[in-house]
User: Fold these one by one.
Assistant:
Number 1:
Amino acid sequence: MISRGHEEDARPSPSPEKGWIKADFHLHTAEDPKDLITYSARDLLHRAHTLGFHALAITLHDAVLEDSSLSETAINLGIRLIPGAELRLEGADVVVLNLSKKEAAEIHKLSDLAAFRQRRGKSALIIAPHPFYVLGGSMGERLLEYIDVFDAVEVCHFHTAWFNRNRRAIEIAEAFKKPLVATSDAHRFHGFGRHYTLIEADPDAGVEGIFEAIRNHCVKPVSPDMTNAQLAKQLWCMFVTDKWNQWQARRAKRG
Ligand SMILES: [Zn+2]
């Protein structure tokens, strides 16, 4: 059951009910090698702390952020920071959690995920992000072919009452008994905090404890519909502000 309604009605609660942890496992920050993002991983951690998050994964495009001082900040803020990446494999994005830089560099094709899965067993988690969104990298119907390597299917944040490409993903997740996780796939600071997953697990459960709770469907994805005004803002950011910033950055680089 996905908690929806309108975004305004779904202000992130600073402290979810006892026994549940608040998590977002698909996030981008300024350290991203592909996208131009204006807030750092450290900014995001502090914001997450304010919003009552217990677990995060910063999933840069094709890169794992390994930074011990960042991990230390996360510990001090009471946030479990799980290493991860959003890998583009044969044109399809895949979110892999709890992997190292070295492991990420060894995954090139969708078929490599099976070997990774076998090697790592339950200590890693593989999510199919926005599988039916055509902009960017989506798996589409290939999700069916590779469904066995996935632990969970993402509910993409980009939906309104009248536009929702999550329906097919939800149908497949239900058919194959895969849990749904909601994420913000944040590329902008204001895009973080409204879409997340509540997981029934102890805040002190290790990474594997959290993954186990997800696999056991002890999750409540929270993903409210965008209002038309929020949709307009998002599209403006994607197609105007971001493009302008990218152009400025390229110009600055050229000197
Ligand atoms: Zn992403």
Number 2:
Amino acid sequence: MIPDQWYAITRSQDIRNDRPVGVRRLGMDLVLWRSTDGTLVCQSARCPHKGANMADGRLRGDTLGCPYHDFRFDADGQCVLAPCLGSEARIPKSMRLDTHVVREEAGLIWLWWGRRTEPLPEVQIPPEVRDKPELYATSSWSQPVNYTRYIESLLDFYHVPVVHRDHWFNWFDYVGWSGTAKHLGLDGRRRYFAMTKVENSRLSVDGTTLRHDFDLCQEGDPTNRAPMNVTFTFPGMVHIHTEPFDVTIWMTPIDEEHTQVLFRWYEDAHLKKALRLPALRRLIPRMALFAQKRVQEVQDMRVVRQIQPRVTGRQVNRFVAVDELNAKYVVMRDQLKKQAGVTPDETDGAYRVDDADLGADLFAPSE
Ligand code: FES
Ligand SMILES: [Fe+2]
């Protein structure tokens, strides 16, 4: 994991003000709750007294009460009341919960994982996501895979016609993405399977945001071509813009073996005017997320769960030319870890790049 980053840990809507919620993220058991004015609090879920899970506790005004002996902890983590000692007792300063820095932006809760410098940097949300006017729906689920491999599965699109096929639901992909009006979409299946080549690949770097523009196309058929824009922002956001849909995905480690996914699907810009009610406008994103989780995601995970080694890194992949986004992700991940004072767990060394003219700047330090 890369220190000194904001990690999207859950949706704002998941933390209400009537009860605490437990989540496991970045290898830590956390409890999230809101004080009476709605301020979000994120603390270690282990009670310092005898280790009970604070996520099973109760909110008591602006404190969280432990489920075991009801010691009360305030938003700063300090124990302010131990009922078994009475209200006049002096409570040691060490009776406290670790408290984490959190922010709420773009409908998500962000946890700072790193050194507490003042002021902390801004949460990194690129303009194509931050300024997007469309309504959206966001779903959250977890997968038993290492987050780096999950991220990599969203950094290439030429796996799409290979992996996302043969389920009845994929007919929506065939027809909606590749079908022509002339043939009422019925030529979609053939054209979708033929769209295997990546052309016009261009990568740019802007701080910790990488942008990859390319066409997914059929070799020799200029009419069968899908322009795509993929934006990656560290530590784990992918935004995909194509003609049929726009999505943003945040991937956060639960631990080294599991990943939490926050998947956002935007309303169809074409239907925006026809559908006035926000609830109706969110209907298609909601249905798309349902299908994403139950069909496309299952297809991806069938492959990703079997990947070895389970964590990506230098000298792990044998990249080809059109993998430049993925290659840059691996390089910058190491650079950011080094900047944060972490010794990379992978061996440094040359990258293995076959048949590639990746350009020297790919391996130069990021600006
Ligand atoms: S274990 Fe939490 S109050 Fe005793
Ligand atoms: Fe996929």
